[in-house]
């Protein structure tokens, strides 16, 4: 009995390895912008296709399925309802790409596109990264409560992932705040006090994430502060 059980396990394991070895695997990285639409690429060869999209990093949840020549959304995760579609007029030509609309921060992660046809099985893994749709601004204002001093503020909203802010100078005073919004984006702001006695000075502010960075600059000539 012991030999039979062992043999059964080995046979199952061999079949599993055979399926894996017959499955073509590819990896792709895609960057998309928050709240916009996004396309996750996937292609296949053959006919009578079965397509399954899953978000692997979120627990292998079902994102979109297609078989019997139509969408099958009964098991689709609620978070993706009304936001996914395939390119129906291109499926017969081998296009299994997924279109995702109103992209959310929670959409970031690893996806798997599984296709099965008369030619075999394929798995494509897509690493989706989300970037916030943001811009940086640097403004000057007069602090009337403090004589002969100006305030320069650098800020940006709707950033993802979490940003950092750095000034090109070493100001005597600065205050940087980072806020997390309900949409899981970040707002960042920093202010520094500039004395009228400081002249001919450039003030550059850089807001960066580990993916990109943006810079804004003001320059002070005499008592005047202007955009560079």
From TrEMBL:
A GO cellular-component term linked to this record: external side of plasma membrane
Sorted UniProt keywords: Cell membrane, Disulfide bond, Glycoprotein, Immunoglobulin domain, Membrane, Receptor, Signal, Transmembrane, Transmembrane helix
Subcellular location: Cell membrane
The keyword Zinc belongs to this UniProt entry's keyword annotation: no
GO BP term, example: T cell costimulation
Membrane topology, record value: Single-pass type I membrane protein
Top-level taxon of origin: Eukaryota
Domain Ig-like, chain residue ranges per copy: 40-131, 152-217
Keyword Nucleotide-binding appears in the UniProt entry: no
Matching CDD domains: IgV_HHLA2
PANTHER family: BUTYROPHILIN SUBFAMILY 2 MEMBER A2-LIKE-RELATED, T-LYMPHOCYTE ACTIVATION ANTIGEN
Protein name: Ig-like domain-containing protein
Classification lineage: Eukaryota, Metazoa, Chordata, Craniata, Vertebrata
């Amino acid at each position: 009995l012991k030999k039979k059980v062992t043999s059964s396990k080995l046979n199952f394991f061999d079949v599993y390895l055979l399926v894996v070895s017959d499955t073509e695997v590819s990896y792709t990285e895609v960057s998309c912008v928050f709240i916009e639409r996004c396309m996750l690429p996937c292609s296949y060869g053959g006919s009578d296709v079965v397509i399954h999209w899953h978000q692997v990093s979120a627990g292998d949840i079902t994102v979109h399925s297609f078989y019997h020549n139509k969408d099958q959304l009964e098991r689709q995760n609620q978070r993706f309802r009304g936001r996914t579609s395939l390119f129906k007029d291109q499926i017969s030509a081998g296009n299994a790409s997924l279109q995702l609309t109103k992209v959310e921060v929670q959409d970031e992660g690893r996806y798997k596109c599984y296709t099965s046809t008369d030619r075999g099985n394929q798995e494509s893994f897509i690493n989706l990264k989300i970037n916030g749709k943001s811009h940086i601004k640097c403004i000057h204002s007069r602090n009337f409560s403090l004589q002969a001093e100006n305030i320069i503020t650098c800020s940006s909203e709707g950033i993802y992932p979490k940003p950092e802010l750095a000034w090109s100078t070493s100001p005597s005073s600065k205050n940087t705040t980072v806020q997390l919004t309900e949409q899981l984006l970040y707002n960042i702001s920093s202010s520094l006090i500039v004395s009228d006695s400081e002249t001919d000075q450039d003030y550059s502010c850089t807001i960066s994430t580990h993916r990109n960075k943006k810079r804004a600059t003001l320059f002070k000539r005499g008592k005047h502060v202007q955009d560079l």
